[in-house]
C-alpha cells in the first residue's frame, strides 16, 4: 500500500477498533470482579436477566440490588455493548476498507465477541468452572486481537525517520515481541487456572500451578527486559516502537507489585514473615473490597501486558513490511512469519 493510499483510507475502522478496545478493557475488569466474588451465578438465566430482556431489566433493581447481581448484570451489559460496537466495526469496515485481510479481521472480531458471549451463557446454564476458565482466558486474548487490529488499521503505520534506516533491524525485535506475547498469553492461562482451581482439589495442585505461574512470570520479566533492549536502538529510526517498550517495563514492574499484593491479600504473608508484627497481625478478609480490587487489577495488568506486547509486535512487523515494499530485493526476507503473511496479503491487493 502506497503512502497516498494510506492517507486516503477511512479512519473510522481504526476509531471503532479503538472504541471496542476501550469497551473491552473495563469488561475484563468487571469480569475479574465477577470471578473474585464468585458472582457468575448471581443471575441464573441467560440471555435475559430474571425473565427480563437484558436491556429492559429495571435499573432501580439493578443498582439497588445485591452487589453480585450488580456486577454480573453490568458485565452482561458491557458485553452487549461490545457486541454492538463490533457490529458497527464490521459494517463500517466493509463499506470503507478495500483490504480483504482487514475486512476478515473485523469480521473475526465480531465472531470472537459472539463466541465469548456464548461461553458466558454456557457458564451460567451449565454452571461449569471449566467453561468459566475458558471464558476468562478468551477475554484477554480478544483484547490482544484488538491490539493487532488497531495497529493494522492505523492510518499512520510505523515508518522510518531516516531514509537509510535498515529494515533488517526490525526482524529480531518483531520475533522477540511475538515471543513475549506468547509468554504473556501463557501466563494469563496459568493465572486463570489458579483462579478456577476446583474446590475439591488437593493443596499440591495449587502449589504446582503456583510454581508454574512464578516460573513463567520470571520468563516474562526477562523477555520484557530483552525486548526493551532491542526496541531502544531501533526506536531511534522507527517511530512508535519505543513507547510500547517503555510501557512494558512500567507494566511489568507494576504487575510484580500487584502479584505480591494479590498473594498477601488472598493467602496472607508467607510463613517466614511471621516474626514481623505487621505480618503476624494481618488477617485475610475474604471477598473484601481491598482483596477484590488488588486481585482484579493483577488480572487486568496481565491483559495490558499482552495488549502492549502485541502492539509492539504488530508495529515492528508492519514497519518491516513497509520497508520491504519500498525496497524489495531478491535476497530480502520478511522480519517474521507474520510479516510474511502481511507481505503476501499486501502484494495481492
Number of strands: 0
| Total helical elements | 12
What ranges have pLDDT less than 50 throughout 5 or more consecutive residues? 325-335
Q: What oligomeric state do these chains adopt?
A: single chain
Bulk shape: flat
Taken in chain order, the helices and strands follow as: HHHHHHHHHHHH
Summed over residues and divided by their number, the pLDDT gives a mean of 84
Distance between the termini: 8 Å
Strand content: under 5%
| Main beta-sheet annotation | none
Rg measurement, Å: 22 Å
* Helical residues, percent: over 70%
Content-based structural category: mainly alpha
Structure description:
The chain is flat and about 60 Å long. It starts with a helix and ends with a helix. With 349 residues, it is mainly α. The chain has helices at residues 3-8, 12-36, 59-64, 67-96, 100-126, 129-153, 170-195, 203-235, 242-267, 277-280, 289-326, 337-348.
In a few lines, what is going on in this structure?
The protein has 349 residues and is mainly alpha-helical. Helices cover 74% and strands 0% of the residues. Helix 2 (12-36) runs antiparallel to helix 4, helix 7 (170-195) packs antiparallel against helix 11 (289-326) and helix 8 (203-235) packs antiparallel against helix 9 (242-267).
Features:
349 residues; mainly alpha; 12 helices; 74% helix; 0% strand
Write the layout of secondary structure elements.
Blueprint: H1 3-8, H2 12-36, H3 59-64, H4 67-96, H5 100-126, H6 129-153, H7 170-195, H8 203-235, H9 242-267, H10 277-280, H11 289-326, H12 337-348
Helix pairs in contact: 2-4, 2-6, 2-11, 4-5, 5-6, 6-7, 6-11, 7-8, 7-11, 8-9, 9-11, 11-12
Amino acid at each position: 500500500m502506497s503512502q497516498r493510499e494510506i492517507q486516503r483510507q477511512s479512519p473510522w475502522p481504526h476509531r471503532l477498533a479503538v472504541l471496542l478496545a476501550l469497551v473491552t478493557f473495563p469488561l475484563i475488569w468487571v469480569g475479574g470482579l465477577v470471578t473474585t466474588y464468585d458472582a457468575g451465578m448471581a443471575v441464573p438465566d441467560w440471555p435475559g436477566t430474571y425473565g427480563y430482556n437484558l436491556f429492559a431489566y429495571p435499573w432501580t433493581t439493578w443498582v439497588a440490588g445485591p452487589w453480585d447481581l450488580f456486577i454480573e448484570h453490568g458485565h452482561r451489559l458491557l458485553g452487549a455493548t461490545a457486541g454492538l460496537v463490533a457490529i458497527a466495526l464490521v459494517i463500517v469496515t466493509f463499506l470503507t476498507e478495500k483490504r480483504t485481510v482487514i475486512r476478515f479481521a473485523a469480521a473475526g472480531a465480531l465472531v470472537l465477541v459472539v463466541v465469548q458471549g456464548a461461553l458466558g451463557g454456557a457458564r451460567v446454564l451449565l454452571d461449569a468452572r471449566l467453561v468459566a476458565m475458558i471464558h476468562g482466558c478468551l477475554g484477554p486474548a480478544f483484547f490482544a486481537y484488538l491490539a493487532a487490529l488497531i495497529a493494522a488499521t492505523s492510518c499512520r503505520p510505523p515508518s522510518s525517520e531516516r531514509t537509510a534506516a535498515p529494515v533488517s533491524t526490525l526482524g529480531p525485535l518483531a520475533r522477540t515481541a511475538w515471543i513475549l506475547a506468547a509468554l504473556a498469553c501463557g501466563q494469563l492461562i496459568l493465572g486463570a487456572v489458579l483462579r478456577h482451581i476446583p474446590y475439591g482439589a488437593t493443596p499440591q495442585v495449587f502449589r504446582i500451578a503456583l510454581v508454574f505461574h512464578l516460573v513463567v512470570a520470571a520468563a516474562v520479566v526477562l523477555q520484557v527486559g530483552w525486548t526493551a533492549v532491542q526496541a531502544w536502538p531501533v526506536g531511534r529510526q522507527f517511530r512508535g516502537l519505543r513507547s510500547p517498550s517503555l510501557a512494558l517495563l512500567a507494566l511489568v514492574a507494576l504487575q510484580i507489585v500487584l502479584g505480591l499484593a494479590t498473594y498477601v491479600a488472598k493467602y496472607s504473608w508467607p510463613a517466614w514473615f511471621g516474626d514481623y508484627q505487621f505480618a503476624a497481625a494481618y488477617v485475610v478478609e475474604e471477598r473484601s473490597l481491598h482483596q477484590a480490587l488488588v486481585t482484579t487489577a493483577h488480572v487486568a495488568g496481565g491483559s495490558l501486558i499482552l495488549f502492549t506486547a502485541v502492539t509492539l509486535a504488530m508495529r515492528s512487523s508492519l514497519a518491516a513490511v513497509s520497508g520491504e515494499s519500498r525496497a524489495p530485493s531478491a535476497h530480502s526476507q520478511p522480519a517474521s512469519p507474520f510479516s510474511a503473511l502481511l507481505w503476501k496479503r499486501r502484494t495481492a491487493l
